[in-house]
Design brief:
alpha/beta, D-Maltodextrin-Binding Protein, domain 2, 3 domains, 5-stranded mixed sheet, 4-stranded mixed sheet, 54% helix, globular, disordered N terminus
Amino acid sequence: MNRICTIFVIVALLAMVVAACAPAQPTVDTSALEKADAAVATAQAEAAAAQAAAATAQAQAAEAVDASAGELATAQAVAEAAMQEAEAAKAAAEAAMQEAAEPAEEEAAPAPTPKPKSSGPTTIRIITFAQGFAWPELFGEDGVTESDRLKEFEAQENVDIAVEWGDETAVRQKVAADLASRTGRFCVVLVGSDGGVQTYGAGGLLEPLDDYFTNYPQDYLELDDIYTNFLDANRMDGKLYALPYYSFGPGMIYRTDLFEKYGLEPPTTIDELYEVLEALKQGLEADGIDDVYPVTMRGAPGEEPSLDLLGFVYAYAGYPAWFEGGPVTAEEIKATSAQPIFTSDDFAKGFSAFADILQKYGPPGAATHTWVDMMNIYMQGNAAILMPSAINGYASLTFGDNETVLNNSAFAPSPAGPSGEVIQSFWTFSLGINADCEDKEAAWKVLTFLTGKESQQAFADRVGWPTVTMKSVMHSDSLVDRWGEEEINANEEAILESNPFYFPYIPELVEYMDRIGTSVSSVIAGEQTSEEALNQLQSWATERMLRAGYYR
């Protein structure tokens, strides 16, 4: 990982040297500059790819305590393959920089004759996860059987969609590798607002979408129908790089029967949350109920806990307390030379509260729990509260068959912290267009169809979660009939009041999310104290920002 990041710094410096030392010319060699930019972007994506591989290797290592020799060999093979891809990307970056540094020809070479477009359909390759869950009305429940509706769309737009599925970690790695290689193999790629938008948008590896709404009109979605926060979450430096398929804001799902039994109301503040959790713990223990816990949240190593943990930090501090003054962009950090503040009270209070709640009131093994675990724990009736990513509670209610849970659950807004801001949890399952896709117009048609009104409504009708991105779908009959107008309005209010920028939008976000989540997991597991974890995080962050050239 250190080698890849070093490459990034060297390539960036080389680009500056080329620009500074090039002899004066009557005209600017734009092709050379473009190649230099491409090299820098490649190195940025290369770092992201290596980080994704590192995260996977870390997770495999965590599981390898009881693993067999064969499993360990598999983990090593994955890591070696990732490093080989990184080396290939490095070679491509070096070649691009060498070519960019060469002086321009005296006379420009004639422009190549454009290849005539085939009259047949344009193949648009897509890569994503959630096979059988995402768009089964188009790709079938197996993810590979084309429906009549998909065939109709393909014929209408003269495209042929080829989708590649995989588990989330593998897909993220393949996206990073494809974007870094600049081959444009996949035209529509999984992005996500928890690092992909930030890293690939800043690196110029995703196509900005803003002008497409004007230049390439389509009938699949209306921009004004999408909740603004879900669009803003997919912007980097003001540019829109992806469109959301489904999303979620903060909230809690809780057991109304247990709250009624112990005379409790949903907490509106973190102080009240502690009181409710303690009352639930004492009440359950007094009644001899030892298989139900006050709360379930996710605390596994890696990026997962960060979406929720950072919501606690925001609620305590009232701003994204990562750097001095609360900057949220790379430009703002550089302009003020804002230093990391992970050991400050502003960050530490929320960090410690998250770990403390899971240690005292969460189920055993919370330090290993992912969103799937928290969903199953609530689904099986083993937790009284699921928070702050309420979407996982709705998954429990739609996939589960525990009648007690199904008949005695409700949504409540996320509690507010001392700052007055509520605990955040925000994410979008979003797709973007590869900047190296050969036919971006065709990719745009596919993208807007997959994230458009028809697909959104199909998701709502089938899954039943009030976590859709469009206002018209949120208030559609299928969701209102299932949850009632009051609960739909409460979910909508949570979306409108949420802040997707409760953490900084910087190119290094993927690394930070992994590091922060892993740090809090170690505290929850009792491996170190919050103070020890935050001291390490502070040292790492300071060194990382120096390496990235933020402070000069």
